[in-house]
């Protein structure tokens, strides 16, 4: 019990410290989720603590992820008019993004010669963890490995976001939101939400649509391209 | 009532919606996670004015402001799979990043083009 409490207190303290730094020094490399994760990983490695030990406390925070996702209904509701008006562009972009994500991940890892197990694990990376894990399970991937790929898409998405915006000429808030939600799920959405509530709400919609679309088309596309 | 108590009660309300969503998922055998069903449920309740907007307001604002915090335990999970990404495995990170960039650029551009066309019309 004391270990669990210590892990929880440590996570809260590190998060608050990184948030404090981030509010005074807003840079990509000071993003709280990235710095906190790195610090905790270093601490666990230094003290030879396995992930399971960390999760005795971490699971209590993890359990609040569900209600945190539920809370996203509010921004969705606030921007319902614009969503209704722009539903077709948002839906079209998200569907095409879902196909691009599945096919590119699958073909690239296949050409690089990785095992089927790894390929199946990388396919659902652009959707939120619980959905990605259940897709991975049904297509024959490894669930915890899928969770890692989901993190690469999420945190990696934050890192490459400024570069992608510049290269692809994404200037419109709706386009940016769809790009973020389709590629980097809830981690990307939380970053979008911080920049601009409307962009964040569009990202929320894209993330939810993408989760549903990917779980429907991933099994078929996997069969087609394997 | 104290502000702290209000926020805690409202988060408990959100948790209740999450549990309801998970229950619906199990009963109907859906592949969409309980949290997403809970969110859609709350959206419907707000739209039908069954739940007034201010009922959960402060709790929602708190959760959204600190959304990244709730991901930390999951992202720390990378530690258990570090070995997969050694040597040739490094290529997997590059593939993941490249594919993510493609999704972001393509889905964003398609939407942007369609939105602009609609705004001009």
From TrEMBL, chain A:
Membrane-spanning segments: 6-22, 29-48, 60-77, 86-108, 142-165, 202-225
InterPro entries for this protein: CidB/LrgB (IPR007300)
Compartments (UniProt record): Cell membrane
Record membrane topology: Multi-pass membrane protein
Keywords: Cell membrane, Membrane, Transmembrane, Transmembrane helix
Coiled-coil ranges (or none): none
GO CC annotations on file: plasma membrane
Cited PANTHER family: HOLIN-LIKE PROTEIN CIDB, PUTATIVE SEROTONIN TRANSPORTER
Protein name in the entry: LrgB family protein
Taxonomy of the source species: Bacteria, Bacillati, Bacillota, Bacilli, Bacillales
């Amino acid at each position: 019990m004391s270990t669990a409490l210590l892990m929880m207190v440590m996570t809260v303290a590190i998060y608050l410290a990184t948030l404090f730094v981030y509010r005074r020094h807003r840079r990509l490399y000071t993003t709280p989720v990235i710095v906190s994760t790195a610090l905790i990983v270093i601490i666990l490695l230094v003290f030879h603590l396995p992930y399971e030990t960390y999760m005795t406390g971490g699971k209590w925070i993890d359990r609040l992820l569900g209600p945190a996702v539920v809370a996203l209904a509010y921004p969705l509701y606030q921007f319902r008019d614009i969503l209704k008006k722009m539903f077709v562009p948002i839906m079209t972009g998200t569907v095409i993004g879902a196909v691009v994500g599945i096919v590119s991940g699958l073909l690239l890892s296949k050409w690089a010669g990785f095992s089927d197990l790894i390929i199946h694990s990388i396919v659902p990376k652009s959707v939120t963890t619980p959905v990605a894990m259940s897709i991975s399970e049904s297509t024959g991937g490894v669930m915890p490995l899928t969770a890692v790929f989901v993190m690469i898409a999420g945190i990696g998405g934050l890192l490459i976001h400024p570069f992608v915006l510049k290269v692809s000429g994404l200037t419109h808030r709706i386009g940016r939101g769809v790009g973020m939600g389709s590629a980097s799920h809830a981690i990307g959405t939380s970053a979008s939400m911080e920049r601009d509530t409307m962009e964040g709400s569009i990202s929320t919609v894209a993330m939810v649509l993408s989760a549903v679309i990917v779980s429907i088309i991933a099994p078929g596309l996997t069969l087609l391209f394997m | 009532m104290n502000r702290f108590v209000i926020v805690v009660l409202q988060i408990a309300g959100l948790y209740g919606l999450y549990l309801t969503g998970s229950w619906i998922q199990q009963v109907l055998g859906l592949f969409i996670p309980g949290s997403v069903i809970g969110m859609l449920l709350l959206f419907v309740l707000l739209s039908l004015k069954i739940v007034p907007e201010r009922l959960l307001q402060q709790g929602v604002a708190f959760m959204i402001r600190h959304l990244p915090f709730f991901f930390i335990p999951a992202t720390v999970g990378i530690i258990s799979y570090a070995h997969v990404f050694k040597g040739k495995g490094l290529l997997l990170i590059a593939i993941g990043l490249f594919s993510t960039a493609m999704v972001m650029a393509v889905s964003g551009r398609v939407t942007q083009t369609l939105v602009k066309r609609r705004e001009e019309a």
